[in-house]
Amino acid sequence: KNEVEQSPQNLTAQEGEFITINCSYSVGISALHWLQQHPGGGIVSLFMLSSGKKKHGRLIATINIQEKHSSLHITASHPRDSAVYICAADSGGGADGLTFGKGTHLIIQP
Amino acid sequence: EPEVTQTPSHQVTQMGQEVILRCVPISNHLYFYWYRQILGQKVEFLVSFYNNEISEKSEIFDDQFSVERPDGSNFTLKIRSTKLEDSAMYFCASNLQGAISEAFFGQGTRLTVV
What we know:
Helix content of chain A: under 10%
Distance between the termini of chain B: 37 Å
Order of helices and strands of chain A: EEEEEEEEEEE
Helix content of chain B: under 10%
Mean pLDDT of chain A: 94
Low-confidence stretches of chain B: none
Order of helices and strands of chain B: EEEEEEEEEEE
Radius of gyration of chain B: 13 Å
Oligomer: heterodimer
Shape of chain A: globular
Number of strands of chain A: 11
Number of helices of chain A: 0
Number of helices of chain B: 0
Mean pLDDT of chain B: 94
Low-confidence stretches of chain A: none
Strand content of chain B: over 45%
Largest sheet of chain A: 6 strands, mixed
Structural class of chain A: mainly beta
Largest interface: A-B, 27 and 32 residues
Largest sheet of chain B: 7 strands, mixed
Distance between the termini of chain A: 41 Å
């Protein structure tokens, strides 16, 4: 069974700062998902990656398959980025569903 | 943009009652999932569904739970004889191809068992 760990659990930063959230997993995966959860509870997919790096606007996600580690970066952070960021591992052929980390609660102060 | 829709957004039920949570996945998706998030805890996998049958289920998904795709659009989660500990946010998700496929989540149904 895959164990997914995230750090930090909580992060408070000032607007404009560069943010890094880390995720590690214990078992080889087919894909790693980064998700965003807002206070209302809804979950939005940010990235799905199985190798290398992806960029979308101010968000960048990287993954190192050999080290079983992924990072999510936010450049020029803004208060609207405040949310819970969750990494989730897909360990199998899709039928097993995702294994979620506990999430990182990010607060960006103006 | 296509989206997964869930109804109701919030359901309050008495302990011992049956509830049905409803989901409409994205129309061309083939894999469907239910997840649960107890307040303050991480999201947990309940069950996956493909080709009109359960593909995998977790240890949480015991005999009180069942899933159904009664027609070409709806995907339901039924909880028989609800318990207090079933109180949670329930998320439906779907994707096109299973593995290595972006996951689309509904907004969730907050179930409160009293």
